[in-house]
Design goal:
alpha/beta; Nucleotidyltransferase, domain 5; six-stranded mixed sheet; 6 strands
Length: 194
């Protein structure tokens, strides 16, 4: 299995981290995508970043089995600024479009899932994430690259859990169909886009 982990970022100072990893945790690609048009309005930067992500994904598309991305966190309540999160969600839309164009499923990962998958602690800080990532790649990595590695790991784990749960659900459904009973919704269903 080959998974692409995407840590969305829309600025040169906060770029998009990209990791392509196989199921043996060999990191085959690790990089950052910075917008060329960094000084323009965010609506001009998003397609620029999306095009570069698509180029990377197309290079691996023959073997790519899954795309995993981190869901941006949106604060609610007093002091929240929806305009600051809009570029991130626009970039997420680009990632979903890339998955659809490549006929590749896309899994959403929460930040604490990525931290747990890489550092073994859902509350790990950036330094912890970078330290573990450096052990894996044996070179200097940015926080965005470290996050992308954690996102790839978490996406792979979530996809595997979903695969196992779907087998269990299928067996359960067969039994329920015989008894004509209602079936519960599948866990993680809201996180997977096929």
């Amino acid at each position: 299995m080959l998974v692409m982990g995407v840590d969305p970022g829309t600025r040169r100072a906060n770029p998009t981290g990209i990791c392509i990893m196989d199921d043996r945790e060999n990191i085959l690609y690790l990089g950052e995508v910075k917008p060329h048009a960094w000084s323009k309005e965010w609506m001009a930067r998003i397609p620029d970043i999306g095009d570069t992500i698509m180029e990377i994904a197309r290079e691996w598309s023959a073997d790519l089995d899954l795309i995993s991305f981190e869901a941006p966190i949106m604060q609610v309540g007093r002091g929240a600024n929806p305009e600051s999160i809009a570029p991130m969600w626009a970039l997420v839309g680009m990632v979903l479009g890339i998955g659809r164009a490549l006929h590749c499923p896309v899994v959403r990962v929460q930040p604490n899932e990525a931290k747990l998958a890489l550092a073994g602690n859902a509350r790990a800080d950036k330094a912890d994430m970078i330290a573990v990532a450096r052990l894996l790649v044996k070179e200097t990595v940015s926080s965005h690259q470290a996050d992308a590695i954690g996102i790839a790991r978490a996406g792979m784990a979530k996809w595997e859990a979903l695969r196992i749960l779907s087998k269990i659900e299928m067996e359960d459904r067969k039994g329920r169909e015989k008894l004509n009973l209602w079936k519960p919704p599948m866990p993680f269903q809201k996180d997977v886009h096929v």
